[in-house]
Amino acid sequence: MTQTAIIVGTQWGDEGKGKITDYLARDFDFVVRFHGGNNAGHTVVANGKTYKFFLLPSGVLSPGTVSVIGNGVVVDPKVLIGEINNFKVNNSAPNLKISERAHVIMPYHLLMDNGLGAGQGKLAAGSTGRGIAPVYADKAYRHGIRVGDLIEPELFKEKLEKSYYFNTQILTKVFRLPFERTIEDIYNEYLAYGQELLPYIHDTELDLYNAYAQKKSILFEGAQGMSLDPDQGMYPHGTSSNNVAGYASVGSGVGINEKSKIIGVAKAYVSRVGNSPFITELPENEAVYIREKGAEYGTTTGRARRIGWLDLVQIRQSVRTSGLSEIAFTKLDVLDGLKELKICMAYEIDGQITLEMPASLSKIRRAKPVYTTLPGWEDTDATTYETLPHNLRHYIEFVEKKINCHISFVSLGADRERTILRLR
């Protein structure tokens, strides 16, 4: 078994990364969340129970595994404390470590998110309103507040004065939004959060370095999907942290010296929340069947997801930008019973055919899908690859050939046991 593995989304997110992480976590010593915040939710079904995680890594369901919230994650401490307490209702306390270098979402970031979205108009990403973009911006401005600051009262006060002044000036004078919370109120509230999180706060970068040097195994859990990446995705209709596999080292502090297994998770169709061109999007009267059968509603917001046919241009870009070694193909059971399935093979833009994702947003806006059609199948009630319906196996092998990446996991339902390992 490889010492390190990285799980990333190949589409718009919501591909089933939580399930694949949970499925693999039992074989790893550490599971590390390395980017994003509580704008990204993972749903895991294990032992008949459904868990919805927002900041907790999906590895928390494996008692022998240490779960780590890495430095690349942005943390809303109120949300995290609530999630830890909810988890402890039916489980023991999570085996969790939080990087003291992870940045903290503050109350003014939440309001700032609304102001930014309102001002971006057609170019808005359709934010979840969780304060993610503003906190990453503060990190770049170099007046952000980190988790470790919450347990150093004098340093926290010094940093908060700068961050509070900067953000409230923009809120009240640029966006004309009222912000009534005082700096003293926020200071006291967040100091209390720091004390509550104190048992979990660590120098996780050093912990992970030592674990890696001791040949411990580490699984890196990505959030969201490649098309939301601010560099490689459909900018500006994305998120604020890089989510391609290369960011695993940056967002965890682990310099990986050896080749990792890099698993891209791809859903058998495409969904997304938020605003952007969506080249394979289905009309609402056709989308509703897949949405309802696949429970395609945002884990974080509850918003109905937009639905589209599988887009191989998108997945090929993920194979290339993350250096994928294999694919976990999920939610194939949702397509049971459909007579025909369309797959987007390429885009037609101004009469020209392209197999690759354009960087130009104007070209993406003009792109039309070039489809091929494959026959559907009746049901996926099987426990081995060989006993799957012929048309389903043909669908999997067709996709595998066109993206030039092995499909190693076939997921046929939400429960972790509904997974078939497909060897080369």
Describe the structure.
The mean pLDDT is 92. This protein has 424 residues and is an alpha/beta fold. The longest helix is centred in the middle third of the chain and has 22 residues, at 153-174. The strands form 5 sheets. A 10-stranded mixed beta sheet has the order 9-7-5-2-10-1-11-15-19-20, with helices on both faces. 47% of the residues are buried. The protein is built from 12 helices and 20 strands. α3 crosses α4 (132-141) and α3 packs parallel to α5 (153-174). The protein has 2 domains: 4-91 and 204-421, Alpha-Beta Complex (Adenylosuccinate Synthetase, Chain A, domain 3); 103-199, Adenylosuccinate Synthetase, subunit A, domain 2 (Orthogonal Bundle), CATH 1.10.300. The two termini are 15 Å apart.
Radius of gyration: 22 Å
Q: Profile the largest sheet.
A: 10 strands, mixed
Identify the CATH homologous superfamily of the largest domain.
Adenylosuccinate Synthetase, subunit A, domain 3
Uncertain segments: none
- DSSP helix fraction: 25-40%
Average pLDDT: 92
Give me the count of strands: 20
- How many distinct domains? 2
Helix-strand layout with pairing:
Elements: E1 4-9, H1 17-25, E2 30-33, E3 42-46, E4 49-53, E5 66-69, E6 74-75, H2 77-90, E7 96-99, E8 103-104, H3 107-120, H4 132-141, H5 153-174, H6 183-197, E9 201-202, H7 204-213, E10 218-221, H8 247-250, E11 261-267, E12 270-272, H9 284-293, E13 306-308, E14 310-311, H10 312-322, E15 326-330, E16 340-349, E17 352-354, H11 361-366, E18 368-375, H12 390-403, E19 407-411, E20 419-421
Parallel strand pairs: 1-10, 1-11, 2-5, 2-10, 5-7, 6-8, 7-9, 11-15, 14-16, 15-19
Antiparallel strand pairs: 3-4, 12-13, 16-17, 16-18, 19-20
Helix pairs in contact: 3-4, 3-5
